[in-house]
Specification:
Strand content: under 5%
Number of strands: 0
Number of helices: 15
Structural class: mainly alpha
Distance between the termini: 33 Å
């Protein structure tokens, strides 16, 4: 499938970036709520990765693998409830989403261990910037002015969120670079899932990309980690929370939202993950939240409001 065709089908499957008709208002609201819950569910993942008693690659594997039974049940229920819903299996966009998500998790879990949680999450959630860049380069997608302004405001708020730790620190430089790479993979993931959703339902997309991701991550963890199995009950509980909350909940709700919202706007809402992650890090690891960081969080919310799709 050519990139131009993929972009055309992606754009045709959802409301235009600047307008949402009255008939779509309920779907849009449902998508926004799903995206907000997805951001909240994924925001706890950096803290859980820090708490896990296995290495970053092993925790990435368990994160996806432990979610598979829940995702399978969700898929079966969704397809029984709506027998007319499209259900194409392992489409090219789904496979591409799995590749992007694998890269996202590999670099993301490494970044969490080598820089602050606020830094890692901010750079990783710069996905909107990459969505705009890749969407234009690969799919020739255009973004309206309000969305671009909202993106710039969100980036400014995110910079304020990590202001005190953005000063160059050689000990964090590698982690920050890994988190930037994570954001690029996350942007590709948004575009791929957005393209996959018109062909099949959110549950099947999430399950199938998770199966591929888990298989790849298992081999990476097997060859590069000294051990894969956690050593305690608490270690298993952390990984179970990572799988059920951050992956089954977070990625599942993200797939739901991407079938109802413009891709660029969806990626902007995920900026809220950096706010919640900073709060979790403050509570669990005493990574203080300053007044400037709090104001940065408010600026992010303002940027999302500016970029919201308008009704006619």
């Amino acid at each position: 499938m050519r990139a131009a065709d993929l972009g055309a089908r992606t754009n045709a499957s959802r409301p235009a970036a600047g307008k949402v008709g009255s008939d779509d208002s309920k779907e849009f609201l449902f998508g926004v709520v799903a995206m907000l819950l997805a951001a909240l569910a994924m925001s706890i993942s950096p803290s859980l990765v820090r708490l896990a008693d296995v290495g970053p690659f092993a925790s990435a594997f368990w994160r996806v693998f432990l979610a598979l039974p829940i995702l399978w049940i969700w898929m079966r229920y969704a397809e029984i409830a709506d027998v007319k819903a499209p259900r194409a299996s392992f489409t090219i966009p789904t496979i591409l989403a799995a590749m992007a998500f694998t890269g996202d998790l590999l670099f993301w879990h490494l970044a969490i261990m080598q820089t602050t949680i606020a830094n890692a999450t901010f750079f990783a959630t710069m996905a909107p910037l990459w969505v705009v860049i890749f969407g234009w380069l690969l799919l020739r997608q255009r973004v309206d002015r309000a969305t671009l302004v909202g993106l710039l405001v969100c980036l400014a708020g995110g910079a304020a969120l990590v202001a005190q730790s953005l000063a160059f620190n050689p000990s964090r430089a590698v982690g920050d670079a890994l988190a930037i790479i994570t954001g690029a993979f996350f942007g590709l993931y948004f575009l791929a899932v957005g393209a996959a959703r018109p062909k099949t339902n959110a549950a099947r997309v999430t399950l199938e990309l998770s199966i591929i991701t888990a298989a790849i991550l298992f081999f990476v963890a097997f060859f590069f980690e000294p051990r894969i199995l956690p050593q305690s009950i608490s270690g298993w509980c952390v990984l179970l929370a990572l799988g059920l909350v951050s992956h089954a909940g977070g990625q599942g709700l993200l797939s739901v939202a991407l079938g109802r919202l413009p891709t660029v706007f969806s990626s902007l809402v995920i900026f809220l993950e950096s706010i919640a992650a900073a709060l979790f890090a403050w509570f669990l690891f005493s990574e203080n939240v300053t007044l400037i960081q709090a104001l940065g969080g408010m600026v992010i919310v303002g940027g999302i409001w500016i970029a919201r799709p308008r009704t006619p």
